[in-house]
Design a protein that fits this description.
Layout (H helix, E strand, L loop, with lengths): L1 E9 L8 E8 L5 H11 L3 E9 L2 E7 L4 E2 L3 H15 L5 E6 L2 E9 L2 E7 L4 E2 L6 H8 L7 E5 L8 E5 L3 H6 L6 H7 L4 E7 L7 E7 L4 E4 L3 H15 L3 E6 L5 E8 L2 E6 L1 E10 L1
Parallel strand pairs: 2-3, 4-6, 11-12, 13-15
Antiparallel strand pairs: 1-2, 1-18, 3-4, 4-5, 6-7, 7-8, 8-17, 9-10, 10-11, 12-13, 13-14, 15-16, 16-17
């Protein structure tokens, strides 16, 4: 069986920036084991598969190198980019049915496509004794000033949000210990590291670590912003924010807190068009 594949750098105007996702259109769903093997072979943070179900309507699933996940923002944006550019160029809006409900992406403007994701609430988290210090050691960092927990954060799973004082501290984070086991101790699938921006144009910055899903660090994470946008919108008393994910590749997101939804806008850059044989 031969399948087409596009690799797209999401949340970036240029290749080699943002977050790469592999996009594989399908006529019908194959066995999940095959999709998982393709995702493992691609070895990207996410491989997305979609099946057309009607005019402008698709079913969409996402796989990391080791598991299927409930939500992935950047691969959703990249999937819409492939549909708008190649699969159905007449469309201005696309609807995806997913494990996280219906997700909509509009073609957008010069700032990129516009994606609607479910918002995720966060609550203050009181960790076990010594946990914050161990987390700091695992990231070669100072102890974070706050911890919060989102039942539906990055990848749609429970996420621990750690707040530091400055963007410089976020940029300097480096995995130096057993982060995965530490997060699992508090039933978190990922860590959302964040700080308020210390200068224009960014209202807040972040990084995202999900070793449990086979993604030590994700370059630009749409699903994380489903939790961080409401978090910072409330603190900063702003509905529209500009965010920077400070990974090595990096990415910028224009974010809007829309109540039960978070609206994210960003560009995509096509890197590769190919064919796989399985």
């Amino acid at each position: 069986m031969k399948l087409k594949l596009w690799q797209v750098d999401a949340f970036s105007e240029r290749v080699f920036g943002g977050n790469p996702a592999a996009i594989v259109p399908l006529e019908a769903w194959p066995d999940a084991a095959l999709m998982q093997n393709i995702a493992a072979e691609n070895n990207l943070a996410e491989t997305a598969f979609f099946v057309k179900t009607g005019p402008g309507a698709y079913d969409l699933r996402w796989f990391t190198p080791n598991s299927e996940v409930d939500l992935c923002g950047h691969a959703t944006l990249a999937s819409a980019h492939v549909i708008f550019r190649f699969a159905d160029p007449a469309l201005n809006d696309v609807r995806f049915q997913t494990r996280s409900g219906e997700l909509k992406v509009g073609r957008g403007d010069a700032n990129g496509h516009v994606m609607s994701l479910p918002a995720a609430s966060s609550e203050p988290f009181t960790p076990p004794a010594g946990f914050a210090a161990r987390l700091a050691t695992a990231l070669n960092a100072e102890v974070p000033k706050e911890l919060h927990f989102s039942a539906k954060g990055g990848a749609g799973a429970g996420a621990l949000t750690a707040v530091w004082h400055s963007p410089a501290e976020i940029k300097a984070l480096k995995i130096a210990g057993e982060l995965e086991n530490l997060l699992l101790e508090v039933k978190a699938g990922s860590l959302q590291a964040t700080a308020a921006g210390d200068s224009k144009p960014y209202d807040f910055v972040s990084r995202f670590f999900a070793p449990h899903f086979g993604v030590p660090e994700d370059p630009v994470t749409g699903s994380m912003h489903g939790a961080l946008v409401p978090f910072w919108a409330k603190r900063l008393n702003k509905k529209k924010l500009k965010a920077r994910q400070m990974s090595a590749r990096g990415g910028d997101l224009i974010c809007t807190d829309d109540g039960t939804r978070v609206i994210l806008q960003g560009p995509c850059a096509l890197y590769l068009v190919g064919e796989i044989e399985v």
